[in-house]
Specification:
two-stranded antiparallel ribbon, alpha+beta, binds zinc ion, about 90 residues, about 20% strand
Length: about 90
């Protein structure tokens, strides 16, 4: 059996697929992946990277030189040196 759908039905189906591409952040903010821009997994409310779900200990740092956000990983309660991957500035407190 072959199923034929009209163009409007196809559009509806496409929209459903898009809606399933949502990112939900722990802070309660959610958004469409397609609306996320360059970093679709980064929450615009709290700055959390929702792509790396395993890396719960990662901390967000905003580079004081280029203002780009990057993660500082904490290994065995020891913080790694917060070096900006974009410009190489060491962002120490
Ligand atoms: Zn958030
Ligand atoms: Zn930087």
């Amino acid at each position: 059996m072959r199923i034929q759908i009209s163009e409007s039905q196809f559009k509806t189906l496409s929209e459903v697929v898009k809606k399933n591409n949502k990112v939900e952040c722990k802070c309660g903010h959610s958004w469409d992946l397609s609306d996320g821009g360059k970093d679709p997994y980064i929450c615009h409310e709290c700055g959390r990277d929702n792509e790396k779900k395993k890396d719960e200990t990662a901390k967000y740092i905003k580079c004081r030189n280029c203002n780009k956000k990057f993660t500082q990983t904490i290994y065995k309660n020891k913080k790694s040196t917060p070096v900006c991957p974009t410009c190489g500035t060491v962002n120490k407190d």
